[in-house]
Structures are given as structure tokens and as C-alpha cells.
Amino acid sequence: MKKQISQGAKRIVQWTALAMVGVLIVSGCAGTDEGGGNKFSDPPPNLFPADTNAIGGFESTIEGGDRFAVNDQVTVKFSGVNENWPNHEERIKDDGTVTLPLIGAVKAEGKTPGELQKEIHDRYVPDYYKRLVITITGEQRVYSVGGQVKAPGRQVYIGMTTVTKAIQSAGDFTDFAAKRRVELTRMNGKRYTIDCIKAAKDSSLDLKVYPGDKIEVPMRDWRDLF
Q1: What integer best gives the mean pLDDT of the chain?
Q2: How many CB atoms are located within 10 Å of the residue 59 CB?
Q3: What CATH superfamily is the domain 73-137?
Q4: Alpha-carbon gap, residue 58 to 136, rounded angstroms
Q5: Maximum distance among all alpha carbons in the chain?
Q6: 163 close to 199: Cβ distance less than 8 angstroms
Q7: From 146's CA, which of 66, 123, 128, 220 has a CA 20 to 30 Å away?
């Protein structure tokens, strides 16, 4: 009797071991293809870079956290469609927009390159295209300060600034500067005369400076005696 129980227990252990081997074989077959590689019903995490998306990347000398301003040059590159679209190059207009084919005006001022890129993409997809890759390219942003300042030349535009601040960034006025007749010329040719003595006391008179602007500080003459 004891011998029969022992043989029965032995058989149970053998069948259990065989069952476990079978499970392992089945699991191994499910995890490999004919070439020996792994199969995944879904991609494993972190298989692709986090910034990969249907919109595409952007290339810009503008820092990621910086924002576009009036007069900035914006280049929009279209790809991922059958049509061979040319690049769209435009400076941001005074109203803060650029105008693109089919979708019209898009607000660009105040947006980062990534934000502008996403908005343009979402305006085209899915209304006009099922898939479209947008690449935003900026340019180096500078303005110039010349005339009677201590360090005349081009200045890198690193964010919102004003005429008086721009002059300070150029070393401030020389002793011969006509502070009441500072000239500001926009990219579109518009010209303004700023009284920097008054502007220092009243910020509403201190005009904003945008990329591409030119500031010229003239030398004092007889007009500055009165």
C-alpha cells in the first residue's frame, strides 16, 4: 500500500514538472519571431525620444523659453505631404501675426517656437491634411545702437527692452549726446523721436525696442540749448 502511494506521488511530481516545462516552451515561442527577435504588442517605454511627434522639431537661434516678437524673421517649412510646398519666410507684422497659405493670419508674437509650431500644425491638421510636419526656424535677433553712446554697435535681443534700456546696454550716453532727440527707426521704416529725459521719468514715453530696430543718438547742437 505504501509502495503504491509512493509511486503515485512520484507520478504527480513528474507530471507537474512536465507541465511547467510546457508552459516555459509556450512562453518562449510567444516572445520570439522566426528570426529570433522579440515581439511586442506595444512598444516598450522610452523606445522613442520623448520629443518625437507628428509635428516635427524646430530649429531656431531663439532659446526654447524665449518668445517671438514683432519684426522677428520666421521661416515655416512644410513636409510630410505629397505637394512640394516652398518654405514660407515672413517677418512678424506690427499686429503680431504671420500670414500662411490656406489658414491666413496666425498670431506669432509672444509665442515660443514650439508653441507657434503646434498652433500652425493644428490649424492645418486635420482640416486640410491628415498629416503634416511643420518646422519653425528663427534667426539671430539683434538691434543696433549708434551715435553718441559709449559702446555703439549691434546688441543681441534677449527679451523685451526699451529705448532707454537699450542705450544703457550700449554703455549709456556720451557727454555730447542730445538726449532729447534720440531717433528710433523700425524695420518697416517708421521713425520716432524720443525725449529720453522725459522717458526716464514717464515709462509710457519709453518706446519698446524690437529685433531689427535702429537707435541713433545725435550730437548736441544749438537746438539743445533751449
Answers
A1: 77
A2: 12
A3: wza like domain (3.30.1950.10)
A4: 5
A5: 130
A6: yes
A7: 66
Q: What pairing do the DSSP bridges indicate for beta strands 88-91 and 73-79?
A: antiparallel
Query: Using one digit for the tens of pLDDT, what is the confidence trace for 95-126?
Result: 999 999 999 999 999 998 899 999 999 999 99
Question: Euclidean distance between the first and final Cα of the chain, in Å?
Answer: 130
C-alpha to C-alpha distance for 4 and 111, rounded to whole angstroms: 84
Q: What 8-state DSSP symbol labels residue 206?
A: S
CATH class of the structural domain 142-225: alpha beta
Q: Which pTM value belongs to this model?
A: 0.51
Distance CA 194, CA 128 (A): 47
The answer to whether residues 194 and 170 touch, using CB atoms and an 8 Å cutoff, is: no
From CA 206, how far away is CA 149, in angstroms rounded?
17
φ/ψ (deg, to 5) at 220: -65, 145
Query: How many residues are recorded in the chain?
Result: 226
3-state secondary structure of 23: helix
Q: In what order do the strands lie in the sheet with 133-137?
A: 88-91, 73-79, 133-137
How do the residues of the chain divide into helix, strand and coil, expressed in percent and rounded to 5?
25, 25, 50
